[in-house]
């Protein structure tokens, strides 16, 4: 790692994270959905993004940045649930510039069998399939073309 210094000779800390995050780059409370009424909004007119391992619902908000909620339908161990939450939160944290001012709800459907292969499949969905879908949705919104 190359250290950089300012004109005054003090070390310069570069951050690849967007300006929305604190210095510790945590996924703070303001980026999460918490209350029941926030999740119920997804049953109105939300956009649905179907991926092979999960379904993501997206609805615009007036806050100015994205927020994330997660719904896990199948029974699983707490270790698996925490591992999946970390994976999803980390991707959202690193790609906030793609997300816009929307609320997202990531739903793991009940019929999915939760095993180590599923976690790898979820990782593939979030890292490969989701960016393609978001870019496509952004293109449709910018051009005004209806899907």
Which fold name corresponds to the CATH topology? Ribosomal Protein S5, domain 2
Strand content: 15-25%
Helix content: 25-40%
| CATH class assignment | Alpha Beta
Distance between the termini: 46 Å
Assembly of the depicted chains? single chain
Counting DSSP E segments of at least 2 residues, the number of strands comes to 6
Question: How would you summarize this macromolecular structure in one to three sentences?
Answer:
37% of the residues lie in helices and 18% in strands. It is an alpha+beta fold and 147 residues long.
Explain this structure.
It is a single chain. The protein is globular, with a radius of gyration of 18 Å. By secondary structure, the chain is of the alpha+beta class. It has a single domain (29-143), classed as Ribosomal Protein S5, domain 2, CATH 3.30.230.10. The termini are far apart. The chain has helices at residues 36-40, 78-94, 96-99, 116-143, and strands spanning 4-5, 11-12, 47-50, 55-60, 67-72, 102-108. It has a four-stranded mixed beta sheet, covered by helices on one side.
SSE layout and pairing:
Layout: E1 4-5, E2 11-12, H1 36-40, E3 47-50, E4 55-60, E5 67-72, H2 78-94, H3 96-99, E6 102-108, H4 116-143
Parallel strand pairs: 5-6
Antiparallel strand pairs: 1-2, 3-4, 4-6
Keywords summarizing the entry:
147 residues, alpha+beta, Ribosomal Protein S5, domain 2, four-stranded mixed β-sheet, two-stranded antiparallel ribbon
